[in-house]
Write a structure and sequence with these properties.
Layout lengths: L9 H36 L2 E5 L5 E5 L4 H29 L5 H33 L14 H36 L1
Antiparallel strand pairs: 1-2
Helix pairs in contact: 1-2, 1-4, 2-3, 3-4
Subcellular location: Cell membrane
InterPro entries: CASP/CASPL (IPR006459), CASP_dom (IPR006702), CASPL (IPR044173)
GO cellular component, one term: plasma membrane
């Protein structure tokens, strides 16, 4: 099909509309993932519980007592910061739906952040499992019977983090779909 100057092909317009829709979805997913990682870091980072064991001893639990939970808070905070700071680039893609290089850069960094968040959530999951179940072979007892609030909050923060991982996966998928549309 030969186009005269000033005309726009129908396929080109459809691709722009599709890429704009993908950019809106990506911006929404990025915002939701930022809220999820912020909530997870906040819930874990403010978790603290002390219960009396006897008149002289206390059960005390804080997230920073365990390095895996500290790593979880740091990973969620870094990913949240990245998602917030990458939002202007995502808005730029909404305005300029044909932007290719910025989308490639975001896909690369989104993948790295997903790996960091997955590592943090996985490390924390093992500790949360031990807190709930204990380990008879290592002579570790479950602490969740004594520290219900602590265990409830750290379990809830894991849920938020895993939901954010899924959201970042969807961001990566939508970005690669948009890139494939730009490449055609």
């Amino acid at each position: 099909m030969v186009l005269e100057s000033g005309e726009v092909s129908r396929d080109s317009t459809q691709k722009q509309v599709m890429n704009r829709g993908i950019s809106v979805l990506e911006l929404l997913l990025r915002t939701l993932a930022a809220v999820g990682t912020f909530g997870s870091a906040l819930a874990m980072g403010t978790t603290k519980e002390t219960r009396p064991f006897s008149s002289q001893f206390f059960f005390k639990a804080e997230y920073n007592d365990l390095p895996a939970l500290t790593f979880f808070v740091i990973a969620n905070s870094v990913v949240c910061g990245y998602l917030v700071f990458s939002t202007p680039l995502s808005i730029y893609q909404l305005i300029r739906s044909a932007a290719k290089i910025s989308r490639i850069i975001l896909v690369i960094f989104d993948t790295v952040m997903m790996a960091l968040l997955t590592a943090g959530a996985s490390a924390a999951t093992s500790i949360v499992y031990l807190a709930h179940q204990g380990d008879g072979n290592a002579n570790w007892t479950a602490i969740c019977q004594q520290l219900n609030n602590f265990c409830g909050r750290i379990s809830g923060s894991l849920i938020g983090s895993f939901v954010s991982i899924v959201l970042i996966m969807l961001i990566i998928i939508t970005s690669t779909v948009a890139l494939s549309q730009l490449h055609k």
